[in-house]
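Researcher: We are triaging several targets before committing to wet-lab work. For this one, the compound of interest is magnesium ion. I'm pasting the protein sequence and the ligand SMILES. What I need is the predicted three-dimensional arrangement of the protein with the ligand bound, expressed as structure tokens, so it can go straight into our comparison scripts without reformatting.
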Amino acid sequence: MTEFAVELRNVSKRFPGPSGEIVNAVRNVTMQIRDGEFFSMLGPSGCGKTTSLRMIAGFELPTEGEVYIHGKALGQTPPFQRPVNTVFQNYALFPHMTIGENVAFGLEMKRVPKTEIEGRVKQTLEMVRLPGYEKRRPRQMSGGQQQRVALARALVNHPEVLLLDEPLGALDLKLRKEMQLELKKLQREVGITFVYVTHDQEEALTMSDRIAVMSGGVALQIGNSTDIYERPNCKFVADFIGETNFLNGKVKEQRGSLAEVDLPGGLSVQAQSEGTLTPGQAVSVAIRPEKMRLLPAGARPASGEANRYAGRVESLVYIGTDTQYGVRLAGEQSVRVRQQNNAPGSRPLVAEGEAATLHFPPEAARVLTE
Ligand SMILES: Nc1ncnc2c1ncn2[C@@H]1O[C@H](COP(=O)(O)OP(=O)(O)O)[C@@H](O)[C@H]1O
Ligand SMILES: [Mg+2]
């Protein structure tokens, strides 16, 4: 049996709601988090991320199922006896204490001998690249440095797993982006398993080895950034991560991993499909805006005739690196197309209001059934 750093096995959590109803905060979630992994739980507000994290920490107990750390079932083990530590969103340092005292605080609570505390504080501040900062005060440090002190405060207890609940949520965008890279780097160096909660898809893609995408208390898909972005397993994941066009239609036929789907307006589309489809089945075909090509009207793409459509550019937004086009196809369907402005002095490929050709290879489109 492989031993995971953290494992949730068929974990559910129900709460009594405000008017006596039952809130299914987490529903039958199974996750296996590997040792040394940067693992994120990603999903919109209320999807059960914090509750899942709190069950690992021991602040909540599962209604059903079990949490394991390094193969050991945790049962009702109280938080302070679990080999984990949590960094919360409002990680406020004690402003009247020095950095050294802030980091030492948890060890003092645990009555670790003074002589040992000093060494461990020193070592942990080195670990977060703040060597010799013991005597400083929080207000003398930048936001990013304070964040690292917060991390030091959690790492000084030598946890096997660090739990982080939207720790960058309160920071402004620029600092947040810096800290994402910083945290990821620190995690690599320290080698501790991080379980990271965020509602920000870009943040999760940037930092994580693997991501669990959650909605309504369920873990819909677990995979690395490429799995989740390139091969979403359902509409929610395709829609939540990045931007996706959905073309709704009915299956015409399936040949191996390729399916043909009839769309309104007499159009049809060829797309990748996993699993078995039945003719007539209602499905959505998902295509990313940047995976489509916009060409002048009547152009014949070299890469083949499949998925070539006549359209009209309805809207055009220049956003520097890219231009985003709204293209109307037959059958009242519209798609968003994103084209990189990689030519010097880029001009729009097709002007607003003009007829155009839209093309994408079958490999760029995916059939989703739910
Ligand atoms: N202690 C609680 N009592 C009642 N309902 C709760 C409690 N904690 C969380 N919930 C509910 O459980 C759901 C999931 O919450 P939470 O795990 O905090 O979501 P997230 O962190 O993804 O925003 C929400 O509907 C929330 O209102
Ligand atoms: Mg939360």
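Researcher: Any quick observations?
Model: The CA atoms of residues 138 and 146 lie 6 Å apart.
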